[in-house]
Amino acid sequence: MTLNQDRAAVTLVEPKIDPSTRKLVVDVTAVSGQAFFTGVQRMVREFCETHQSDVLLVRFDAKFGVFRTIPRLGRLRYRSVEGWRGRLRLRLKKWYWNASREFREQGTKRSWMPKFVRNAARAFYERFLSDTELEKAKALQRRPVWEPAPHQTFFLLDIPVSQAHISALIDLVATRVVRSVVYLHDLFPLSHKQLFDAKHHAGVRARHLRYLDLVTSVDEVVCNSAFTKSQYERFTSLIEDPIVQQVKVVYPPWPQFIERSDDSSEELTDVFGDADVRIVAVGALDRRKNLVVLVAALNELVSRGINARLVLVSGATAQMDPNFRAEMLSLDDDVRERVIVLRQVSDNRLVEVYDAATVVAVPSLAEGFGLPVVEGLRRGKIVVAAHTTALTELAETLPVRLVDPHDAPAWATAIAESSLVTSATPMDAPPAFPRDWSDFRTRLFGDSVEKGS
Q1: 131, 174, 311, 331 — which has fewest CB within 10 A?
Q2: Which helix (H) or strand (E) holds 188?
Q3: pLDDT tens, position by position, for the chain (453 residues)?
Q4: What is the pTM of this model?
């Protein structure tokens, strides 16, 4: 069977679902409607793919204010770069990013453009230029409404998409018909205001305050780290007469890096060139990820006569830390050319980037967990991370070198010294980490949610 035939088969054949036999119900609203493929959204996808035979998937229908069952998540596909269509798309995408740079990077012209124009430009990019596309599904309104049952456990692994979504979840939890569990990633919009764009922070904060109302009302809260647990408990300590909850920590599962057959994203041949020190960092170009310190560290390395190059896997983010932009503009041309920004890369391509690197750098100012840390270790790389939040916690059990997040010369030294280490090997899951998604599910629910349909 060819790849196209295989896609057609997946598109046309839908599994028949009997909700009465499914004990675990997973909310996939955020993932099913958007083509996310990294971080938390990839976690949701991988969890659902692993347990697709015995988990009921539901989406929130904002138009009618109800949850509907869906048979499966739409597949993410990477558009081809081959042929004249693929080459034309790549050229248009490059033109789009260059033409919109001043607007995307919080420049002075951004406020001049009406919101509807920005939305139209974004929609055009997603429909025609994006490296990924989400498989089209039947209209959500045609799906059956989910009727909660006492034998079911409702599991929210991702952050809700809107205030209406959160309010519907709060109403659902208040009925106490089903057991409710939330996997909490972080609460940084409430605790680290200075790391968010001031123009958009008010809306993000309001949504997270309402999200906190939801989390404090569920039966069980599972945190992705002890740091996140302490962060949550600081907030709940301010609540008068809180409900009795079970709060525990379960780390995300150790990275699997499953080979994907549906992969036609751009090749990454010689992305590091002839560099002796090859640094990779994965994260959006926003202030929280603190990638500006790596740019400054690269400049320091080059000034020391070290042949280094920095590859940033940033995703298709529309925002950029102004300090990052300023640091990039301050570089000499020969140093600036050593910084490569990759946007949408597939899982397979991400593995290629990790494998080609000598050092994985994680300079974030705030992390609830820090997936690039464990991903780098899983690929046998030396990891240098910022001495902040949950990254400090990971360094207590994992071989991670910690550095002051603001000290660029210290980062340069740590990266240069780490690049000389040649004995690193791919690391298997330590006992504190779930081995895979099945182990993750067991640690979350134990025997309370049995498998089987």
Answers
A1: 174
A2: helix 188-191
A3: 333 333 334 444 566 777 778 899 999 998 876 554 567 888 888 899 899 888 999 999 999 999 999 988 877 777 777 788 888 888 888 788 777 766 655 444 555 667 777 778 877 877 787 777 777 767 888 899 999 999 999 999 999 989 999 999 999 999 999 999 999 999 999 999 999 888 778 889 999 999 999 999 999 999 999 999 999 999 999 988 889 999 999 999 999 887 766 666 666 778 999 999 999 999 999 999 999 999 999 999 999 999 999 999 987 665 678 899 899 999 999 999 999 998 778 788 889 999 999 999 999 999 999 999 999 999 999 999 999 999 999 999 999 999 999 999 999 999 999 999 876 789 999 999 999 999 999 999 986 676 654
A4: 0.88
Which residues have a Cβ under 8 Å from the Cβ of 246 and sit 6 or more positions away? 219, 220, 221
Sheet holding 24-27, edge to edge: 66-70, 55-61, 24-27, 153-156, 179-184, 220-223, 246-249
**Could you give the CA distance from residue 418 to residue 359 in angstroms, rounded to a whole number?**
7
Dist. CA 277–CA 299, nearest whole Å: 13
Topology of 15-75+136-254+435-445 in CATH?
Answer: Rossmann fold (3.40.50)
Structure-token pair, residue 128: 């025609």
Where along the chain do the CATH 3.40.50.2000 domains lie? 15-75+136-254+435-445, 277-418
Angle at the Cα of 297 from the Cα atoms of 227 and 197, rounded to 5 degrees = 55
Six token digits for residue 386: 């910022």
For residue 63, the one-letter residue type is: K
Its sign, for the CA torsion 315, 206, 29, 235, is positive
- What Cα–Cα distance (Å) separates residue 141 from each residue in 16, 74, 162? 18, 16, 18
Phi, psi of 271 (to 5 degrees): -65, -25
For domain 277-418, give the fold: Rossmann fold (3.40.50)
For residue 404, which of 295, 293, 278, 311 has the smallest C-alpha distance? 293
Q: What single string gives the DSSP state of each residue in 250-317?
A: -PPPPP--PPPSS--PPP-TTTTTT-SEEEEEES-SSTTTTTHHHHHHHHHHHHTT--EEEEEE--S-
Q: Are 66 and 164 in contact (CB under 8 A)?
A: no
